[in-house]
Amino acid sequence: MGAGAAAAVLLLSGCSQGIENGALPSTPEITNQTGRIITLWNGSWIAALVVGVITWGLILWCVAVYRKRKGDNKLPVQTRVHLPLELMYTIVPIIAIGVLFKYTAEDIAFLTDTSAEPDVEIQVVGKQWSWDFNYLTDDVFDPGVQAQLTGEEGVEETLPTLYLPVNETVHFYLDSRDVIHSFWIPAFLYKEDTVPGRQNEWQVTPTQTGTYQGKCAELCGEYHASMLFNVKVVERDEYDAHMQELADKGYEGALGLEYSRDQVVEFTMEHGETE
Ligand SMILES: [Cu+2]
After folding, report:
1. Distance from the CA of 144 to the center of ligand 1, in angstroms?
2. Which pLDDT tens digit goes with each residue over 161-213?
3. Separation of 185 CA from ligand 1 center, angstroms?
4. Which residues contact 189 (CB under 8 A, 6 or more apart)?
5. How far is the CA of 45 from the centre of ligand 1 (A)?
6. pTM reported for the whole predicted model
7. Quick one: which of 137, 183, 187, 191 has its CA closest to 160?
8. Which helix (H) or strand (E) holds 52?
9. CA–CA distance, 35 with 28 (Å, rounded to integer)
10. What count of Cα atoms within 13 Å lies in the side-chain half-sphere of residue 128?
């Protein structure tokens, strides 16, 4: 087997390993957005590799062809200006960056578009150190309790769990009670900050049922690593059953932003309690 073929095998097996390790999900169609994101990701790498191969090739070619030969002590031709070459290495990178820019801008416009009529509206509130989920359409909420990461098994089942109905458009309103957090579902290949005093929005349509992991992707304090949650993409009837379950627990309405950390402290002080 030639060296080139060996390198190709190494490269390709490296890629599939990456997919298994979670660099990319093994099935691209987890939401209406993931296929498009992966196409952009892979396309960018292929383009970068093509540019890289041309650049490495030109370097090696110069080193080999214009090397100093035995007994040759003359200076090489000293070129001061080479207009066609200079035009080329100005225009070619501009075109390359323009192509990357076009595809990136198109995909960003698609991913950040929130103009569709949503089936479900959910407010996610980041807080030190968990998440509250307000299911606005169903008028129930789920107060997130911080995960206790003891290293023992079974923690995953205790995490706050966000339910989403499959094949329905979800409109997220993303808020924070205290500092900047970032709402991240790695399998969905998208994250969005939750910023105090500013509401971010995001729309997505999950297309495959399953349980996914969620995390905070913005270092937000001592227990940042505990801001874990589950995402369950389920059929409509299971989603409705969960909404009913929350209502039965008395979690009706929404947990407003007035429950900020500062106000909780004030509240306990007013009532004569020590922290
Ligand atoms: Cu956080």
Report:
1. 13
2. 999 999 999 999 999 999 999 999 999 999 999 999 999 999 999 999 999 99
3. 13
4. 25, 30, 31, 33, 34, 37, 38
5. 31
6. 0.80
7. 183
8. helix 34-65
9. 5
10. 13
120 C-alpha to ligand 1 centroid (Å): 24
Task: State which residues have CB under 5 angstroms from ligand 1, the bound ion.
Answer: 181, 216, 220, 227
Cα 83 vs. chain centroid, distance in angstroms?
A: 44
Is residue 204 a contact partner of residue 30, using CB atoms and an 8 Å limit?
A: no
Q: Distance between CA 256 and CA 261 in Å, rounded?
A: 12
Total residue length of the chain: 275
Residue 220 CA, ligand 1 centroid: distance in Å? 5
Take residue 5 and report the two structure tokens written for it. Answer: 């073929």
Question: From the CA of 200, how far away is ligand 1's center (Å)?
Answer: 15
Cβ-based neighbours of 103, under 8 Å, separated by 6 or more = 40, 43, 44
Ligand 1 centroid – CA 203 distance (Å): 21
Q: 131 C-alpha vs ligand 1 centroid, how far in Å?
A: 9
The DSSP result for 110-137, as a single string, is HHT---S--SEEEEEEEETTEEEEEETT
